[in-house]
Amino acid sequence: MAKKNAQTSHGTPAIVALDRAGVPYTLHPYEHDPASGLSYGLEAAAALGADPAQVFKTLLADVDGALVVGIVPVAGSLDLKALARAVGGKRATMADLAVAQRATGYVVGGISPLGQKQRLRTVLDATATGFDVVYISAGRRGLDLSLAPADLLRLTGGVTADVAR
To answer: Which among 76, 100, 94 has a CA at the least distance from the CA of 162?
Structure first.
């Protein structure tokens, strides 16, 4: 994987964070089609020709009053009970979209787990560790990046758990 410099980074906070940390990644731009009928994540997987099990979406949940990031494969969904257990909580609900956008600084469909406005507890689905690289949003619709799951965990301070269904 080639590390991209700031001139090719499209300036998203996620890519700035990767550049600052010196983490290798590869950008994968694609043409976002609002009329595709697919979810943002499945659209990205299809446009990139990537296995949907290897493309991950970033979701925010409210766990006992605190926002938590769950990162799961785009073909699945976030298991809220498992997410709550993974962070020692009791109850989880999906975060309001406006709250998620304010907390992360990203728009829905382009929320990256990297470079968020607030550092939030993060749980990466354990299936990610079975891949050399995973694809995540680079911080805007139509732009994904791939990186090693270990680097994603290190930069987010995240943990792994079975949080997808």
So the answer is: 76
| Single-letter code of the amino acid located at 71 | I
CB 40 within 8 A of CB 57: yes
Question: What single-letter DSSP state applies at residue 54?
Answer: T
Q: Which of 92, 86, 105, 88 is nearest to 61 (CA)?
A: 92
Does the pLDDT at position 5 exceed 70?
no
CB 64 within 8 A of CB 86: no
* Four-CA torsion 123, 87, 165, 75, nearest 10 degrees: -20
How far apart CA 72 and CA 55 sit, in angstroms, is 8
- What are the tens digits of pLDDT across the range 72-103? 999 999 999 999 999 999 999 999 999 999 99
The single residue listed with the structure tokens 């809220």 is: 80
